[in-house]
UniProtKB/TrEMBL annotation:
Name of the protein described by the UniProt record: Lectin
Classification lineage: Bacteria, Pseudomonadati, Pseudomonadota, Gammaproteobacteria, Lysobacterales
Keywords annotated in UniProt: Signal
Signal sequence annotation: 1-19
Chain intervals for the UniProt region annotation (Disordered): 20-59
Highest taxon listed in the record's lineage: Bacteria
Low complexity bias (residue ranges): 26-46
PROSITE patterns, A to Z: PROKAR_LIPOPROTEIN
């Protein structure tokens, strides 16, 4: 009887040893070269903080090609102090306007404009004294033009701008003094929203006239 029990115990131990060898560790569980499993980091679909919308300056139309150069002493080939005939001779295009004989103040404008006010040359006492523009294609000396904000004009002509209320609207006149001893002045007119609607360059008192020749 004891002999039978001993044989049974030996058989049980042998079977357990064989089973342990077949059910050993997996190929990767005990492999020291295998990297440990890691949970993938969570990716947020949206930023954690609110991002304000992008802001941009008021758009200004591009300058047309071929626009003539504006200066503090004149424009294109014309200079302050020239007579109408002298300006016509150097302008390089037709200037429209037929001032009455003996008229002290009058305007000439390039042919082909939709309105004379898009760009105009003012003559006082027979001499060129001012030019003005309502077209966004025309750029004043220093870079200012129609469509710009009043704050941009102040920054562009830093320390040279004097503002005064507009005579007819809720806007302002931004008067820019010249540099390097220039007697000419730039005047930008703005609307109630502070946007430049027109500008002019000229000699006092003509540059400050708000009704053409008055």
């Amino acid at each position: 009887m004891r002999h039978a029990l001993s044989i049974a115990v030996l058989l049980t131990l042998s079977l357990a040893a064989c089973t342990g060898e077949r059910e050993g560790p997996s190929d990767t569980a005990g492999d020291p070269a295998a990297p440990p499993a890691m949970d993938a980091p969570a990716v947020a679909d949206q930023p954690s903080e609110d991002i304000p919308p992008a802001t941009a300056p008021t758009p200004v139309p591009p300058v047309a090609e071929g626009t003539f150069a504006a200066r503090m002493d004149g424009v294109a080939g014309a200079r302050f102090g020239m007579t109408a005939d002298e300006v016509r001779a150097v302008w390089g295009g037709e200037l429209q306007g037929n001032p009455a004989e003996g008229q002290e103040c009058f305007h000439l404008s390039p042919a082909g404009q939709s309105t004379p006010a898009q760009f105009a040359l003012m003559f006082g006492d027979g001499r060129l004294v001012r030019y003005s523009a309502e077209s966004p294609d025309r750029v004043a000396p220093g870079g200012g033009r129609r469509g710009m904000a009043a704050d941009d004009i102040r920054a562009m002509y830093d320390g040279r701008v004097e503002a005064s209320p507009h005579k007819y609207t809720d806007g302002h006149y931004l008067r820019v003094t010249g540099q390097d001893g220039s007697a000419a002045v730039i005047v930008f007119e703005t609307d109630a929203e502070g946007t430049v609607t027109e500008w002019r360059v000229g000699l006092a008192p003509y540059v400050d006239y708000v009704e053409g020749c008055a």
